[in-house]
């Protein structure tokens, strides 16, 4: 009964979404307040209906109802409860339902918090959201129904893919979808503004909080996915330029550009056309990522579906929404007024430079991701575009961008003084130079590029702190005054500084682990030792262990330094009972910001194959993303972003009335 209720709720949600997609638009054309007011109510209703459907599917997983095909294919009665719940979105059908739930959740948030939006803009934006919702509800109901029944019901399930039975995969998809789908709000606002013909600084202020929220969630989601792949797959890497990884990275790059472009538009009413175009591009890349993961054109541990029918359906959605949005943009772009002018050396100019490099980098990743697929479709030839291509094209684009980042917040709007900003950054430049010299001195044989890369990370960190210090009046006021000024700064200033600080931390981690990590592959017998970095690891042997739904062989390693043992690492080769599928459980020992990483290979007559990595400063990669995500949250707490473009107060309205 619960399953049928969930299915019925999805059908009802589709009916409501279809009404929401049509009536508010008619109301905005006719200036009918009643029809426009229907949009928020419909958005909230759709959310509760989809939430009911999602709850019904979750209940089926929790109770191990194997009469539901989706539960039978992706669950098992012995699976721990946390993985029964995460199994809801650990498959194609359930993950699409989560995708739609987040989509209608954002629509409901706009309905709830959009009281100060112009009625026509709000109605049109929610209608565009409903167009997207209707398309994906049709997709789920026609091709990916999660409530399909099995008769007779199997006694036991087939279990979830073992590599997905991990806490990281319980967190990663919801965060990623919050980012992916969150950009739909920016897309809907852009299309609604093009329909309405009104795009101004107030529009940018309404869009920026949603962009920031989606960017923050996507940052955390990508980082969580990177760390999961690092420790779960046993390969010792944190990023491989996998096409599905790129599918999430491209919206992040475009979203970062959109975030900065919207700031220019809000402050100066400049870059209107470009900002609207970026809003369309960012969500279009999110839709492209959805297509790549679910169409079957890619083979990846991240990919969900391999059914060509589903791929064709999503491709149709892609063509309709992306093609329609770009067509509307082409028709309306000429009628948009250009904003204010600014000098090349200004904060606006720095943000334009930021956009130039970010969009070029996005295009580079897009070409590298799609070119092999297009070539195979046209000629049948298969080629692989991997890390060498991206490292040689993406990396050089990032270096000048990273060098320019500290200048932006210190430049004045409209016209800046580059020499004065350089003087304020003397200390940051000096510290960065000392860091580079220290790397060369303490790391014998360190590559020059590694020293420069770590110096760039230090430059970003010191530059972010310089911005706060200058705003507080460092060197111009006493400590009490500086403290009061610092407390009085808007939260967005701290959020920006935290994000740039985190970027610097991540850069240091990326460069350090790339330049200084070591890898060894050897065969060890119990009692034999291996040396990795400054540590010695003694292999103590293998022992069997049994989990709730798996068996494993654990390998224990005693870790010592200078002859003194101080820790033990346990790695394992695991086999899940239901699927008989092996997985590698890496053993990781964190020592300060660095890690010892051990993965077991096959057993041979000469012993056990072991892979050992020493990864200095590797945790900085993910600590930096934490700083960036916290920076996004802090900025969202800025009252100016939460209020948006406030309506005129009654007192001001009365004063204006008397003046006329």
What's the helix and strand layout?
Blueprint: H1 2-30, H2 33-62, H3 69-74, H4 81-86, H5 92-113, H6 119-143, H7 167-196, H8 201-232, H9 243-268, H10 272-294, H11 308-332, H12 347-379, H13 387-404, H14 407-410, H15 418-424, H16 426-442, H17 448-472, H18 479-488, H19 491-516, E1 518-524, E2 529-532, E3 535-546, E4 550-561, E5 564-576, E6 581-585, E7 587-591, E8 594-604, E9 607-615, H20 620-636, H21 639-643, H22 650-659
Antiparallel strand pairs: 1-9, 2-3, 3-4, 4-5, 5-6, 7-8, 8-9
Helix pairs in contact: 1-2, 1-6, 2-5, 2-6, 5-6, 5-7, 6-7, 6-11, 7-8, 7-9, 7-10, 8-9, 8-20, 9-10, 9-12, 10-11, 12-13, 16-17, 17-18, 17-19, 19-20
Unreliable spans are 643-660
How many angstroms does the end-to-end distance come to? Answer: 64 Å
Q: Tell me the strand percentage band.
A: 5-15%
Using the alpha-carbon principal axes, give the shape.
globular
What is the number of helices?
Answer: 22
List the strand order in the largest sheet. 2-3-4-5-6
Describe the structure.
The structure is a single chain. This protein is of the alpha+beta class. Helix content is 65%, strand content 12%. The chain has helices at 2-30, 33-62, 69-74, 81-86, 92-113, 119-143, 167-196, 201-232, 243-268, 272-294, 308-332, 347-379, 387-404, 407-410, 418-424, 426-442, 448-472, 479-488, 491-516, 620-636, 639-643, 650-659; strands at residues 518-524, 529-532, 535-546, 550-561, 564-576, 581-585, 587-591, 594-604, 607-615. The strands form 2 sheets. A 5-stranded antiparallel sheet has the order 2-3-4-5-6, with no helix packed on it. It has a 4-stranded antiparallel sheet with strand order 1-9-8-7.
């Amino acid at each position: 009964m619960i399953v049928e209720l969930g299915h019925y709720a999805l059908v009802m949600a589709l009916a409501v979404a279809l009404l929401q997609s049509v009536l508010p638009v008619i109301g905005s054309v006719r200036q009918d307040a009643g029809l426009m007011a229907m949009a928020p109510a419909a958005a909230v209703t759709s959310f509760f209906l989809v939430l009911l459907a999602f709850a019904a599917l979750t209940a089926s997983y929790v109770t191990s109802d194997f009469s539901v095909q989706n539960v039978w294919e992706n669950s098992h009665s012995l699976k721990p409860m946390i993985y029964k719940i995460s199994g809801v979105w650990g498959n194609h059908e359930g993950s699409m339902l989560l995708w739609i739930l987040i989509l209608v959740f954002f629509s409901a948030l706009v309905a709830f918090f959009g009281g100060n939006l112009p009625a026509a803009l709000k109605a049109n934006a929610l209608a565009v959201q409903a167009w997207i919702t209707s398309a994906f509800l049709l997709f789920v109901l026609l091709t990916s129904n999660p409530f399909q029944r099995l008769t007779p019901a199997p006694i036991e399930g087939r279990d979830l893919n073992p590599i997905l039975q991990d806490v990281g995969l319980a967190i990663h998809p919801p965060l990623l979808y919050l980012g992916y789908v969150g950009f739909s709000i920016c897309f809907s606002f852009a299309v609604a503004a093009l329909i309405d013909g009104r795009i101004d600084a107030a529009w940018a202020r309404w869009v920026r909080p949603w962009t920031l929220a989606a960017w923050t969630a996507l940052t955390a989601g990508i980082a969580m996915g990177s760390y999961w792949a690092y420790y779960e797959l046993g390969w010792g890497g944190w990023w491989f330029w996998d096409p599905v990884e790129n599918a999430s990275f491209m919206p992040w790059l475009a979203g970062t550009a959109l975030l900065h472009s919207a700031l220019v538009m809000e402050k100066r009413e400049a870059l209107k056309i470009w900002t609207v175009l970026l809003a369309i591009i960012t969500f279009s890349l999110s839709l492209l990522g959805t297509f790549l993961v679910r169409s079957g054109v890619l083979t990846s541990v991240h990919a969900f579906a391999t059914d060509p029918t589903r791929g064709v359906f999503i491709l149709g959605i892609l063509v309709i929404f992306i093609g329609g949005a770009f067509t509307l943009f082409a028709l309306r772009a000429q009628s948009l007024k250009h904003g204010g002018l600014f000098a090349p050396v200004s904060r606006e100019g720095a943000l334009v430079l930021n956009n130039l490099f970010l969009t070029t980098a996005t295009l580079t990743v897009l070409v590298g991701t799609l070119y092999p697929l297009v070539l195979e479709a046209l000629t049948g030839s298969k080629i692989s575009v991997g890390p060498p291509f991206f490292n040689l094209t993406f990396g050089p684009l990032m270096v000048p961008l990273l060098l320019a980042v500290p200048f932006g917040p210190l430049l004045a709007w409209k016209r800046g003084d580059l020499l004065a900003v350089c003087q304020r950054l003397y200390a940051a430049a000096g510290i960065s130079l000392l860091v580079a010299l220290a790397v060369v001195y303490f790391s014998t044989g360190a590559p020059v590029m590694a020293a420069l890369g770590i110096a760039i990370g230090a430059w970003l960190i010191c530059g972010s702190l310089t911005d706060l210090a200058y705003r507080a009046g460092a060197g111009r006021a006493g400590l009490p005054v500086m403290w009061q000024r610092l407390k009085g700064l808007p939260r967005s200033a701290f959020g920006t500084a935290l994000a740039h600080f985190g970027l610097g931390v991540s850069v240091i981690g990326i460069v350090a682990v790339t330049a200084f990590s070591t890898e060894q592959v050897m065969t060890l017998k119990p009692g034999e030792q291996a040396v990795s970095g400054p540590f010695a690891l003694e292999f103590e042997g293998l022992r069997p262990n049994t989990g709730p739904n798996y068996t494993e062989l654990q390998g224990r390693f005693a870790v010592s330094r200078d002859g003194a043992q101080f820790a033990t690492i346990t790695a394992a080769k695991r086999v899940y009972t239901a699927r008989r599928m092996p997985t590698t459980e890496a053993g990781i020992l964190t020592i300060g910001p660095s890690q010892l990483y051990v993965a077991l290979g096959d057993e041979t007559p000469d012993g056990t194959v072991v892979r050992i990595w020493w990864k200095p400063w590797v945790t900085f990669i993910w600590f930096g993303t934490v700083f960036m995500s916290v920076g996004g949250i802090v900025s969202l707490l800025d009252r100016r972003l939460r209020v948006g473009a406030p309506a005129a107060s009654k007192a001001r309205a009365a004063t204006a009335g008397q003046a006329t």
